[in-house]
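Q: Given only this backbone (275 positions), what sequence would you predict?
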């Protein structure tokens, strides 16, 4: 998004909020939930065409699935915001060589999946549908995809998870929302309206949805990657998650940003999976 555009949108919605805070807050949530990137490019599609593609459904939303079949245990790859399954290209190539059965899905409103909006709770439902079908024992997620994995596993409706890899994961939904409000320059009136909208829509306040809190009761072994200079999700989020994830190890990086795309990362994941 253009660096000036968020502030312009913020000014417009703040103005609307003076007269109708409910409308302004609803529009603010729509801006927050609508990805501007994440569709599959021609180049990315060439790689994804090497997979066996299939479709599952959650309610009326289609879920785009990619599978690279292998004889070893099944791994589910869960990408983040404004991305798609092609972001795992480097990891997939290495996992194929190791013989793993690889499943990737596109998030709501991303790649080839359905929905006009995105949120981590809906994403966790997509993950549930895919997990019940393919029975992965390893979950690897980036950013809000990592958060969505924990939202799913926290429900205790799935018991086959042995290992979890989190890359650049947010610790709390509240943190995401507050950074969004700040980026857009929303007034207190609009910001409070956003909080009310979340509680009304999902049945709980934003503070309830916490990776760090939900992960306390997860027994899987974990590996956490986070860059100390991540410009999107602060490094303190990784520390908060690590403190609560009893069977996990945190690997800090420097200079890899939020994307964390590097051979070092994929090599460490392979090592983790082999032990």
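A: Predicted residues:
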């Amino acid at each position: 998004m253009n660096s000036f555009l968020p502030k312009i949108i913020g000014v417009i919605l703040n103005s609307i909020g003076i007269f109708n805070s409910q409308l302004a807050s609803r529009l603010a949530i729509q801006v927050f939930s609508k990805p501007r990137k994440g569709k599959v490019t021609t180049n990315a599609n060439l790689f994804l065409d090497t997979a066996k593609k299939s479709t599952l459904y959650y309610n009326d939303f289609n879920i785009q699935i990619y599978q690279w079949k292998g004889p070893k245990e099944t791994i589910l790859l869960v990408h983040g915001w404004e991305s798609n399954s092609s972001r795992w290209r480097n990891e997939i190539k290495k996992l194929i060589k190791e013989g793993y059965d690889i499943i990737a899905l596109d998030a709501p409103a991303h790649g080839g999946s359905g929905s006009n909006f995105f949120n981590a709770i809906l994403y966790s439902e997509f993950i549930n549908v895919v997990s019940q079908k393919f029975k992965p024992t390893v979950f690897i997620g980036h950013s809000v995809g990592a958060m969505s994995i924990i939202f799913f596993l926290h429900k205790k409706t799935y018991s086959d998870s042995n290992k979890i890899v989190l890359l650049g994961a947010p610790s709390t939904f509240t943190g995401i929302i507050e950074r969004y409000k700040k980026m857009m320059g929303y007034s207190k009136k609009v910001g409070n309206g956003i909080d009310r909208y979340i509680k009304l829509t999902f049945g709980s306040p934003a503070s309830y949805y916490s990776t760090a809190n939900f992960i306390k009761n997860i027994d899987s072994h974990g590996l956490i990657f986070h860059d100390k200079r991540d410009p999107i999700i602060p490094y303190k989020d990784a520390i908060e998650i690590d403190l609560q994830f009893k069977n996990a190890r945190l690997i800090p990086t420097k200079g890899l940003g939020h994307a964390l795309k590097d051979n070092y990362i994929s090599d460490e994941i392979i090592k983790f999976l082999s032990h």
